[in-house]
Amino acid sequence: MPSIKNYQKALLIALPLALSACGDDDTREVIVEVEVPAPVPTPVDVSYEVTVTNLTNGQPVSPPAIVLHTEGTLWALGEVPSVALERIAEEGTSDEFLTLGTVSAGGDGPITPGNNQTISVTIQDITNAKLTIAAMLGNTNDTFSGLSAWDLSQLEVGDSWTTNSPAYDAGTEKNTESAETVPGPATGGEGFNPTRDDTGFISMHPGVVSADDGLSTSALTVDHKFDNPVIRIKITRTE
């Protein structure tokens, strides 16, 4: 009897049948099709390491939010920011933003000037996910930086890609730079406020002015000013 291979095979069963018309035994072959379901494949992990480096001299970068998603964008220039992004841009809180994708991972603390942080994230069976990153510049009203919907299909295992990212203005809070509205260590002011009083859309950030350069409402100094780019992002596919 032949064995079953490739999950489906004709199985031959010999059945002895007695023929009444003659005294001899006769054997007929009956073909029975047997279908064996294919085994469920074991999920394959697709893993990345994302390293974010703070390029500023006086701005702490909030713990980066790393999100892998399969469709659309989570933020883009000219668009109205989501409340989840507003929370990052105004107070560095990423809990809500991290729920927006298929898989996500957050940093474990602020990144001080000149330092970096590496975050690992894994998704199963998907090599063409999009990668979005967002993190706040702490000594500002609503400044953030990051990467929007970068196509990870460009990376094979062992490949790396590096880019520098500028500062963006979430457009949710006026850039008064006041002690009451800047949440970072320079002032310790208010974080997220649901009231939006600025342009209402994401744009390139004009930069910190500071009290030293004549902004009467500012509690910041020239030490908190920054040039673009403000962060460096390195993505490596590890698995």
Automatic annotation (TrEMBL):
Gene3D superfamilies for the chain: F-spondin domain (2.60.40.2130)
Q: Where is this region: Disordered?
A: 163-195
Q: Which domain of life is it from?
A: Bacteria
What name is this protein filed under?
Answer: Spondin domain-containing protein
Give the organism the record lists.
Answer: Paraglaciecola polaris LMG 21857
